[in-house]
Specification:
alpha/beta, 22 helices, five-stranded parallel β-sheet, Rossmann fold, six-stranded mixed β-sheet
């Protein structure tokens, strides 16, 4: 498989090179030159590991700077296990009624959907370095709005030949998310708080990737940068698998007949998760409508409805912090696909976004987007109400991100009268956002101790919180750096042992 740039500024490269680079050095993202197609009916009956192989092989398999079948099988066998995921189905589907299901993506080690991809990505990256004959140490730079950071840290912790540096908005994640990151062990891990929001973290990392002088210095010192964000194709492709899994489970549970359509609802901030659903649809999965669910920072749903992407707006800190994003990186990939690989348009739009803070689609592209994706949002009050509604109706706990998805699904059904069966991507364990969930259900905001709330929430649900979250109570804080958004290069230099003068 060959990979090309969304901005037409890179020669076609093979999968190992795309994973090693993470993003196009001069700006832009790598995408497959051609998409494979899969016969969904032939996948019925496969377990998760077999399905993952069927989906990933066309993207990564081949000679030269691609991966062998044996390598891909070994990566899958090492990752999708009972030691790493607490459910044998990996991403189980829970039916709530005859037409609504929750696709539970949070059964991995950090209780969030990012685990599905970030547990396997280090295997691809380590093998890529070997294939490319790299003798440099790989430095994984990650900007996180909450969940990616911990999932990446767990995936790359103590991986030989790699260091990982995670940047997160200091006051823009939940307490549990922050504790998860700051208590991470591993001799190669670093976590840095940034005074600002996720977009500040993301822009800082992107600028470092595209800084030729800084990258040259790092190379001279024996380091090379890569990314574990969904801008890296090696992170995004494994997410395609669970869309096929969800549909096949709906067939197996007699919710749909093979070949009949279903809708997919995705709580979305950086657009990576829903983009995986788009690729699954393009590969032949019978998804009728992709439903993009935004929180109070609804730049994406506004864009889908109007064709104008405007990041010049008030930023809200919400109870669904992983969606508190105003610049959605993976949207660029979707626009490149629906404009039939028109790099000229992509360059123009993203230059406008950089210089003016907004861009506007032409009418043809706007109509194509609206016919492909439905977008709407939930306010903070609507999110709280939805958590309680779903719990009281189904006795089923959902976190705030997932609640946004359920709320928007109800709006979609009311507006369109489309009664096709749908699954909602349940992106995080409700216990990971225990305070918001407990308050929404009980109305009690007097409790402040996260671990007391965990136990009370579990009692409400007759369940047990994930052991990984309960263990945070005694975990020491190991990472204490906090910087402003202009100090990224400086702190990277400190972590890597490079003199500050050389960095500046």
């Amino acid at each position: 498989m060959q990979y090309i740039s969304t901005r037409g500024n890179s020669p076609a490269i093979e999968s190992a090179q795309a994973i090693m680079l993470g993003m196009v050095p001069r700006g832009g993202l790598f995408i497959p030159e051609n998409l494979p197609t899969l016969a969904t009916e032939e996948l019925l009956g496969l377990n998760y590991q077999e399905l993952a192989f069927a989906v990933l092989l066309p993207f990564f398999g081949g000679k030269n700077k691609n991966y062998s079948e044996e390598e891909i099988k070994s990566f899958i066998a090492a990752v999708y296990t009972s030691e790493k995921f607490d459910d044998p189905q990996i991403t189980p589907l829970t039916l709530l009624d005859e037409k609504t299901a929750a696709l539970e993506l949070w059964h991995g080690p950090t209780a969030a959907f990012k685990d599905v991809a970030l547990q396997i990505m280090p295997y691809f990256l380590k093998a890529a370095a070997k294939k490319l004959g790299s003798r440099k140490e790989t430095v994984i730079l990650v900007a996180t709005s909450g969940d990616t950071g911990k999932a990446a840290l767990e995936g790359f912790k103590d991986v030989e030949g790699a260091k990982i540096i995670v940047f997160y908005p200091k006051d823009g994640v939940s307490k549990m998310q922050e504790l998860q990151m700051l208590s991470t062990t591993g001799k190669n891990t670093s976590v840095v708080g940034v005074e600002g929001n996720f977009d500040d973290c993301q822009n800082m990392v992107k600028e470092i990737f595209s800084d030729d002088d800084f990258n040259t210095l790092m190379s001279f010192k024996g380091f090379q940068f890569s990314s574990a964000n969904s801008i890296n194709w090696g992170r995004l492709a494994p997410q395609i698998v669970y869309y096929f899994r969800a549909y096949l489970e709906m067939v197996r549970k007699n919710v749909v007949k093979m070949g009949d359509v279903a809708n997919a609802v995705v709580p979305t901030g950086n657009f990576g998760n829903i983009l995986a659903g788009f690729y699954a649809k393009k590969m032949g999965l019978p998804i009728q409508t992709l439903i993009c669910a935004s929180n109070q920072n609804h730049v994406l749903s506004d864009f889908i409805q109007t064709g104008v992407y405007d990041r010049k707006r008030k930023f809200f800190k919400t109870s669904s912090p992983s969606m508190d994003i105003l610049i959605s990186s993976n949207l660029e990939r979707l626009l490149f696909e629906i404009t039939k690989h028109n790099a000229f348009k992509i360059n123009r739009w993203y230059e406008d976004l950089f210089q003016k803070g907004e861009f506007k689609l032409d009418d043809n592209t706007k109509n194509t987007l609206k016919n492909l994706i439905y977008g709407d949002f939930a306010s903070e009050s609507e999110t709280r109400i939805e958590i309680k509604r779903v719990f009281e109706k189904y006795r089923y706990l959902i976190d705030p991100h997932t609640a946004v998805g359920f709320f928007v699904l109800e709006k979609y059904r009311a507006q369109t009268e489309d009664e096709a069966p749908a699954f909602v991507c349940a992106t995080a364990s409700p216990y990971k956002f225990n305070q918001a969930v407990y308050q929404a259900i009980t109305g009690d905001d007097s409790l402040k101790d996260e671990f007391i709330i965990l136990e009370k929430l579990a009692a409400l649900n007759n369940g047990k919180p994930p052991a990984s979250l309960m263990g945070l109570k005694e975990a020491p804080i190991l990472h204490k750096r906090v910087i402003n958004k202009r100090e990224g290069r400086k702190v990277i230099g400190e972590i890597l042992g490079i003199s500050i003068g050389a960095v500046n």
